[in-house]
Design brief:
It is built from 12 helices and 13 strands. By secondary structure, the protein is an alpha+beta fold. It is elongated.
Amino acid sequence: MVHEKSSLIDAPTTEHSRPAAAATLLALMHAQGEVERLSEREQLLSSMLVSVNAVLWAIDWETRRVLYVSPAYERVFGRSAALLLADHREWRNSVHPEDLDYAEHSLARVLEQGAVEDREYRIITADGQIRWLSDKCYINQQVEPGEPLIVVGMAEDITEKKQMELELHRLATTDVLTQSSNRRHFFECANQAFDSACAQGAPLSFLLLDIDDFKDVNDTYGHLEGDQVLRRIAESGRGVLRRGDLFGRIGGEEFAAVLPGCAPEMALQVAERLGKEIQALSFNYEGQAFGVTISQGLASLTEADSTLDSLFARADAAMYEAKRLGKNRVIAG
C-alpha cells in the first residue's frame, strides 16, 4: 500500500513547488513568532497591571455589566473582583453611604461631558476601613455605531493625601493648646453664620467670655497649670454648647461663641449654664485646690447690626461691664 505524504517538506519537489513550500514555511515561522511576541506582551501587560496601584475598570453603560477590573481592585477595595464582575451593585455596596448619591450622579455626568476627572469619594472596605478614592472616568471614543457604550475609568487610593490635607486644615484652623477654633477660623465661620442669619431673618447670638484674674492663676500656680485651666474651660464650652454652635479661643484667656438660631432668652440660659459649669471645675496644684470663674458679654442680632463687628463690639462692651460689676456673671448688651 502506498501512503500519501502530507508534509510540505516530504512532498515531491518540483521547480514550482519549491518556492511555495519555502514561503509557507516562512509564513508559519513568522506566525509562530508573532504568537510568541503577543504572549510576551500579554505577560508583560499582566505583570504591569498587577503592580499598578490604581484600579482600572470598564463597564457596559446600558447593561451596567462590569467588563473588566484590574487586580488592584482587591487590594484597594478589599473585596472580591469576581463578585464585582458578577454583579455591578457590589461597587455600590462599597461606597460610603454619605457619598453614594454624589458618586452615582458624578458618574452619570460622563455621558454629558465625555469625561469626569474630579470625582473624589469614600469607600468602606470589607474589614471596615474608610478610604478616599480619586476616580476618573471617560467614554470610550472608539465605539462604532451600533456597538455598546463603554465607560472606562481609573480609581486611585488617595487616603494618605486626604489625611494630610485634613491634618493641615486642622493645624491651620485649630488652637493647638485647647483644640478649639483659632481666632481666624472662628471669625471666618462666625461671619458666614451672621450672613446666613441675616439672609434668613433668623436669630443669632454672640457670646464673649474672659477668665477672671487669669494672670493671678499663672503667677501663683505657673503657666503649665494656666494651660490646664484653658484646656478645661474649652472642654466645658464644647460640652455645654449645642450642636451647630461655634466656639473658639480668640485671645490669651478669651473665648467666644456664636449661637445660630438662638433667641436672646435661650442664649442667656446657655451662657448662665456655661458659667456654672466652669465655676464648678476644680483644679489642684501641689495639694492646693483652686477654681476659676468667667465674665461673659452677650449680644443678640438686631436690625441695626449690619456686620458681625457691631455684634462683637456690643458683646465686648457687655463683657467689660460684667468685669466692672464684680465678675463671674453674664451681662447682655
